[in-house]
Amino acid sequence: MKKVRSFIKDNVLLITNICIIVFGALFALGMSYTVIHSIVKEDMESTTCALFDGIYGSISNQLEYSANFTKAMCNDYLLQNMLEKEDDMPEEEFEEKMAQYLEKIRAVNKWEGTYLISCTTNKYYTPRGVGKVVDPSKDSYDVWYENFVKSGMEYGADLTYDQFNEKAYVVFTDRRMEVNGKLRAVLGCAVYLSDITNEIKRCSEKYNVDVCLTDIDGNTTLDDEDINLGEAYYSRYYNEDMKRENQVYTKDGFIIRKFIPELGMYLVVKNDQYMLSQRFFRVFLGIAVYALVMILLLTCLNFHKFKGEKAVLKNKVRTDFLTKVSNVNGLYTSINLFLEGEKSRQIGASMFLFDMDNFKEINDTFGHGKGDEVLVKFARELTKHFRAGDIVGRLGGDEFVVFSPGLIDPLLIERKAKELTEFFTWKIEDGGEAVDISVSIGIAVYPNDAQTYKELYKMADQSLYYVKEHGKRGYCIYSNQDEQ
């Protein structure tokens, strides 16, 4: 167990990255499933709509043709003229002419039958002659005629069996024939329901979809297997949503229905097929998004590692990141380079160690952002007050160092120290608040006070401490401490 904990501790970043990749992969799979499901749903809907339009047109065209043709019959001058002679011509002759007329129309259109009921005699004419005299009071089958006349409708459609052939179910298209504004006859045609079911079957097999006709309650009346007028059964996929909407997406597929006025029924098509089209680029887009998210997450989680590496690199870099002057490493390297020179003792140098008085109040009053601004300004002005060959650097916080080769004359050193002390007396203001800051300076001279970098720093630091202990805002040269 200890080995496991140790491994986890030593490989936190690796384990974290593996977990991110695993969970990211699961996320990508879930997202891809959602995208693919959306594509499938869209494709299934568009495929069903395209198929439905063709099937609807194929079936409704048969019925629309019947409705339009019966309308043409009502406007047929020859038929109107024939009806005007119904009372004048011998009965048998008239029946024969009417039968010939109706048979010719039936044969041309390949209908199951055509008929005409004279409103004058109530005779029911067919291609075979007079079928009967319509009398709703004696024959319940004839009630449809009475209801149709009273309804005032221009035309209508009925689904029923043929009175003269009870084995055949037909669609009767009934239409009013008016002459000079007066009802003269009711005529129509009969289309075998088997013609429609055959078309349903053809479409079902050709497009591999489920097709049926239902009544307004959702009871399946016609499908590719049977005609169910006698005992209509409840639709195999009708639901409450389908009764409110004409397009429904279900787990079994996409369903569309549309009312066929000539039949008084709904055509319903269910399709569970789909085609994955070029929209697959959306899946690849999802993968690209996943890859981008993974890169961002890994970058953020690797930040602490980069931060550690940055700290290591920082020791190798010689410039302070904030003030752009030398850092600790840069100061040590540059000063030692001078000290190791053959003529360094003859040339000599002085080390100025600076500490800003009351700097902590800057951060406490205005925030660290303002403190950083002051440090940058201090470094910039400090550089201006020394020569180009002098080494200016920041040790950290508000502590700075200037190493000035050749500056060993005590009078010149004091003059420079006074100049700096007076210059770095600032009032920092912001938002109605103000903080006074100054500078304390400790100075050590090479080679008189010390011969190495560490010793020079130690001597300058002692001088700086002396200034801090005696009221700040001043300077002290190490060799002169006892005199001040």
What do these coordinates show?
There is one protein chain. The chain has two domains: 1-315, Beta-Lactamase, CATH 3.30.450; 317-483, Alpha-Beta Plaits (2-Layer Sandwich), CATH 3.30.70.270. Helix content is 49%, strand content 26%. The chain has helices spanning 2-10, 12-74, 77-84, 91-109, 143-151, 193-207, 240-244, 281-301, 303-316, 328-339, 344-347, 359-366, 368-384, 410-423, 453-469, and strands spanning 113-118, 123-126, 129-133, 155-162, 165-179, 182-192, 210-214, 219-223, 233-234, 247-250, 253-260, 265-271, 349-357, 391-396, 399-405, 426-430, 433-446, 474-477. Helix 12 (359-366) runs antiparallel to helix 13.
CATH architecture of the largest domain: 2-Layer Sandwich
Category by helix and strand content:
alpha+beta
Which sheet architecture does the biggest sheet show?
A: 6 strands, antiparallel
CATH superfamily membership of the largest domain, which one? Answer: PAS domain
Q: How far from one another are the termini?
A: 66 Å
The CATH class of the largest domain? Alpha Beta
Q: Beta-sheet strand percentage?
A: 25-35%
Mean pLDDT across all residues, rounded? 83
Strand order of the largest sheet: 3-2-1-6-5-4
Q: What do we call the CATH topology of the largest domain?
A: Beta-Lactamase
Bin the helical content.
Answer: 40-55%
Radius of gyration: 52 Å
Shape: rod-shaped
Count of individual beta strands: 18
